[in-house]
Amino acid sequence: MAADQAFSLGDIKLLSELQSEALQILEKRCSWRNFSAQEQIIDRQSNTRDVYFVVTGRVRVVNFSMSGREVAFDEIAAGGYFGETAAIDGEPRSATVVSLEDTTVAIMSPEAFHALLIEHPKVALSIMVRMATIIRTSNERIMDLSTLGANNRVYAEILRLAKDDIQEGNIAKINPIPIHGDIASRVSTTRETVARVLNDLARKGLVKREKDALHILDMEHLSEMVEQFQME
């Protein structure tokens, strides 16, 4: 279903440095769609190459094992984007994308996306930085799977989720509270293991649930718990 053309790209972080005239040009190059919660937006191995900008809502990037087990890679909220990898390298999609809530996206063809990168080098640089971050995070998770037990992989994932909101006093906040199943799929364990680990950390005074946030009360100690296991 086509989305209301009143939506704009003004809140897309990747495009935040563009002038309003440039944004208006890009908006005319996009098509707009609404997706309901839990609706598939991109299918893995699809031959489409479009890039999607999340105008409203939130989506999840996932893959599925041969047994059907879901492995979550990322969640992208309003202001983010996805689909750029296939647009850049011309290969099939590498993951499935599903809306977590009612979502509106602006869809840009690969040709228009290539023109955007050529016309605005700062946008291209921002995408390179994001891809470098994805590579680093993937390397960390590969190392975790190779060297850590399930409990310590949960510790490491909590540290990753908390790093964007580290506060003074060696504390951090994860908002909203991560869903057990999401953490489990990212670190290849079970929901029950994640629940047990978080309850154990709460008993030790290392984490605290409060309303819609999970507070990490001793980032340094939690980091030492992971590093100590890696050295053993």
In helices, the fraction of residues equals 40-55%
Rg over CA atoms: 19 Å
The chain-level structural class is alpha+beta
**Beta-strand percent range:** 15-25%
Report mean pLDDT, rounded to a whole number. 89
Runs in which pLDDT lies below 50 for 5 or more consecutive residues are: none
Q: Count all strands and give the number.
A: 12
Summarize this, please?
With 232 residues, the protein is α+β, with helices and mostly antiparallel strands. It has helices at residues 20-29, 84-89, 110-119, 121-147, 150-162, 180-187, 191-203, 219-231, and strands at 30-35, 40-42, 51-56, 58-64, 70-77, 81-82, 96-99, 103-108, 166-167, 171-174, 207-210, 213-216. A hairpin with a 5-residue loop joins strand 4 and strand 5.
Short descriptors:
4-stranded antiparallel beta sheet; 8 helices; 232 residues; 12 strands; single chain; alpha+beta; globular
